[in-house]
Amino acid sequence: MGHRKQVRLAGSVLGRSRHVCAFFHSKEEEYRVLLPYIKEGFEEGDRAVHIIDRHRREDHLRRLQDASIDTAGAEAEERLVVRHWEDTYLQDGYFDQHRQISLFERELLEGKKKGYPLTRFVAGTDWALLDRPGVHDLIEYECRINTMFSKYDDPVCCTYDVSRFSASVIMDALRVHAAVIIGGILQENPFYVPPDEFLRELREREGTNGAGVS
What we know:
This protein has helices at 27-43, 57-66, 71-76, 97-113, 138-149, 167-175, 195-208, and strands spanning 8-9, 12-13, 19-24, 47-52, 80-84, 119-124, 156-161, 179-182, 185-188. A hairpin with a 2-residue loop joins β8 and β9. The termini are far apart. The strands form two sheets. The chain has a seven-stranded mixed sheet with strand order 5-4-6-7-3-8-9, with helices on both faces. 40% of the residues lie in helices and 19% in strands. By secondary structure, it is α/β, with parallel strands linked by helices.
């Protein structure tokens, strides 16, 4: 199996599953939990890919700088790659889950090609609240991405603003991540449902809803 590089997140060492779902109530809570993980990555020579709302770019970089991260140097070397909704999830104005999974894998393999031990991803989900074609596939995509990420050691933390998503989406998001951060603490998730099983459940739901979710 080879030695797996340790990654700490929310006060614990990540286990087998490195596709983590993090629920936050505020940006302050989010950065308090994520900054040590981001900082550890730079200290250990990993690469970072952060996917955020472009309106938050300045604030995001400022928070990293306040944590003594040399963002200008890291971006110049492409050790820090900050991407926006429009050039990832919502390319050409719509969401295509398969395109996005390929994009993640490309970024991950790019990091390996450049010789980085790991690429640490932080990916926001607020794009799914926008009125764009395909955004309702968020949970199906989160479920499918498990299969791709399970082949690698690179960690991905998907962040959810609890105040903005419906309870049913939060509940489903919980069920498709084997590791979850709630209240700033990382835990193995007892509610996790494996991808094949969850996709089957989604198909059944769509069958009973007729036209699907409105």
